[in-house]
Write a structure and sequence with these properties.
Elements: H1 11-23, H2 37-47, H3 51-62, H4 68-77, H5 88-100, H6 104-112, E1 122-123, H7 124-134, H8 146-159, E2 164-167, E3 174-178, H9 181-193, E4 198-200, E5 214-217, E6 238-241, H10 248-251, E7 260-262, E8 285-287, E9 308-310, E10 331-333, E11 352-359, H11 363-368, E12 376-382, H12 387-397, E13 405-410, E14 415-416, E15 428-436, E16 452-457, H13 462-469, E17 476-481, H14 483-486, E18 492-494, E19 504-508, E20 514-516, E21 526-532, H15 535-538, E22 558-564, H16 570-585, E23 592-596
Helix pairs in contact: 1-3, 2-4, 3-5, 7-8
């Protein structure tokens, strides 16, 4: 019934948190460098057991190396710290020191996060494209694109603990970030002082500034006019709205140099249209996701500098033909049933395209080969009985050498992928109903960045599984075989040291058992697999032990078994299910499990 006052960390826990972040080891109580022990104790005292402060200071020190004088400089710069009490102002001073220690480009990127609500999960790719649209990301590195440089900025802010990572459902890729409320409070305060962002809402506003650079609408403004008369709109570079004033559309004509317009999740009244958008000739970023727009106007083709067009959730049936005039477009995100116009191959600057809808005609697949800058591609394919469509798609994909993430969902048929060769920097490969006859030759441990695989293989051999097991960064594997249909009763063994980073695994379509040796899949937490009743007797030893080897998966937390009873007697079925339950229940981790079938 009341507020719970959290206690600060004890000295031992504080020391463990600080040292693990700085030195990357499990040393709990002793500083690895004795000459830093005295100053680290002084820093620990000033942090007073506050986790946010500890991790922020630790991240800052981690970038200072092991220079004793620089550590003393940090210690002296954070003043008296929190040793005399959990004072909010002292916490802000410590966080502010970390902020002002950043290089100027990272300070600007962090300040931009003040346009998002508290505890909001800011999608990584949207944030980076907003930074690029504003001109915060500079082409500094030869051979690296703007997005890749922006990704480095994003990772630096995470490494300095100024933003918090949010992982995807596979726990393999950082897909978003959040800002701690104390850090957000700091950047909003600095944003206001520097006139970086102007906030309008029903409770309070910061529109005293005559010149507005970035306009934030963060609550319902339907019944409130935007005070354009009292503000100069000539310098507005970003408009970010989370629930929209209907009169914003009328005010768009005032934003002469607007680069970012983000209306994601905003309600647009039925009588509200986007007819003024075509006049925003400097626009780089247009986000209309989950708005109630009727359609995208034809004059969107006037936005000659547009780099990002985010339309997910708008449910547009098709895009206007003028979209193909957007030659600087790098990111196009649309719903999976939105039809793209003929000529999409002219958008040769595209780096990220999802979701591309392909059905019946090979026109789109033939144009796809011209989009050679693509890093991310997601496709929904309806091949039916048209083998030509799938073959045409595969031939085009072979020409896209910069691909890092490829996702294809095939519905109403299947596609043969034997002719496809993966690019060397592939990170994520999700192919549904795209079949390989055998594990392809390019699937080798040299694919250093590959973290997620979902593939279907007609026939797999033991050495193929061993090749997959040597992929150094693989964290999620979904492997579908055709052994059940082809009547291949092949048994597999996952050996010691195989799949060292795997956390999620689904092994489907196997006709023989998969057994796990001690030391295999040491990080695996989630497992699903097909199991046939008749396999129990085959893998039970003479002393009655069921040798599947689940007990060797030391990090396992949950198991799902797809049980197949075809061809087994009722007694064999009950015997097999009992053996499976026993194997799961004796696991030392007290697994969550389910047996389907």
């Amino acid at each position: 019934g009341g507020a719970y006052k959290m206690r600060p960390l004890c000295l031992d826990s504080s020391r463990k948190l600080l040292y693990r972040r700085i030195f990357g080891n499990d040393e709990k109580y002793k500083c690895p460098d004795e000459h830093l022990a005295e100053v680290s104790d002084m820093i620990l005292k000033k942090c007073a057991g506050v986790p946010l402060v500890l991790i922020t200071i630790a991240s800052l020190l981690a970038n200072r190396g092991r220079n004793k004088m620089e550590w003393y400089e940090v210690c002296n710069s954070i003043g008296t710290g929190l040793e005399y009490g959990l004072d909010i102002e002292s916490m802000r001073k410590i966080l502010a020191y970390s902020y002002y220690d950043l290089p100027s480009h990272l300070r600007t990127c962090l300040l931009y996060l003040s346009v998002f609500p508290e505890d909001y999960a800011v999608t990584k790719f949207r944030l980076i494209w907003m930074w690029i649209a504003e001109g915060f990301v500079q082409q500094e590195v030869q051979g690296k694109g703007l997005y890749e440089i922006g990704e480095c900025y994003f990772n630096e802010l995470i490494n300095k603990s100024l933003i918090q990572p949010v992982y995807d459902r596979h726990d393999a890729i950082i897909e978003a970030c959040r800002v701690h409320d104390m850090v957000l409070d700091l950047v909003r305060s600095i944003s206001s002082e520097e006139n970086f962002v102007t906030m309008l809402n029903n409770e309070h506003s910061t529109f005293q500034a005559k010149k507005v650079r970035r306009l934030l609408l963060q609550s319902n403004m339907v019944d409130h006019d935007i005070p354009c008369a009292s503000m100069s709109m000539q310098q507005v570079r970003s408009v970010v709205a989370f629930s929209l004033a209907s009169n914003l559309m009328l005010a768009l004509g005032s934003f002469r140099v607007l680069r970012v317009l983000y209306l994601g999740n905003c309600y647009l009244p039925q009588d509200c249209d986007l007819k003024h958008i075509g006049n925003l000739v400097h626009l780089r970023y247009l986000g209309l996701g989950k708005t109630s727009c009727a359609q995208l106007p034809d004059d969107v083709g006037n936005l000659r500098y547009l780099q990002t067009l985010d339309l997910v959730g708008t449910h547009f049936g098709s895009l206007p033909s003028t979209v193909v005039q957007l030659r600087h477009l790098k990111f196009l995100c649309i719903d999976q049933h939105t039809i793209v116009p003929k000529g999409i191959g002219r958008l040769t600057s595209l780096e990220d395209l999802s979701t591309l809808y392909i059905c019946d005609s090979t026109n789109i697949t033939e144009e796809l080969c011209h989009l050679t800058e693509l890093r991310v591609l997601e496709i929904t394919l309806f091949p039916g009985r048209n083998d030509t469509l799938g073959n045409s798609l595969v031939m085009s994909l072979c020409k896209l050498k910069k691909m890092q993430s490829l996702t294809i969902w095939v519905s109403g048929g299947e596609c043969n992928f034997d002719a496809w060769v993966a690019p060397r920097h592939l990170r994520s490969l999700l192919l549904q109903c795209c079949w390989f006859s055998r594990l392809p030759d390019w699937m080798a441990p040299s694919l250093l960045d590959l973290t997620i695989i979902q593939i279907s293989v007609r026939e797999l051999h033991q050495d193929d599984l061993e090749i997959l097991g040597r992929l150094p960064a693989l964290r999620h594997l979904y492997l579908m075989l055709d052994h059940e249909n082809l009547k291949i009763p092949r048994r597999f063994v996952i050996g010691t040291s195989s799949f060292p980073c795997l956390v999620g695994c689904r092994l489907m379509g196997f006709l023989g058992a998969v057994m796990f040796q001690q030391g295999a899949m040491m990080m695996l937490t989630s497992l699903a697999f097909t199991f046939h009743a008749r396999e129990v007797r085959e893998i039970t030893s003479s002393d009655g032990r069921f040798n599947l080897g689940l007990e060797n998966l030391m990090s396992l937390q949950d198991v799902l078994v797809y049980f197949r009873s075809r061809g087994a007697s009722e007694m064999e079925v009950e015997e097999a299910k009992a053996a499976l339950r026993h194997a799961v229940e004796i696991h030392p981790n007290q697994l969550d499990y389910d047996i389907w079938g």
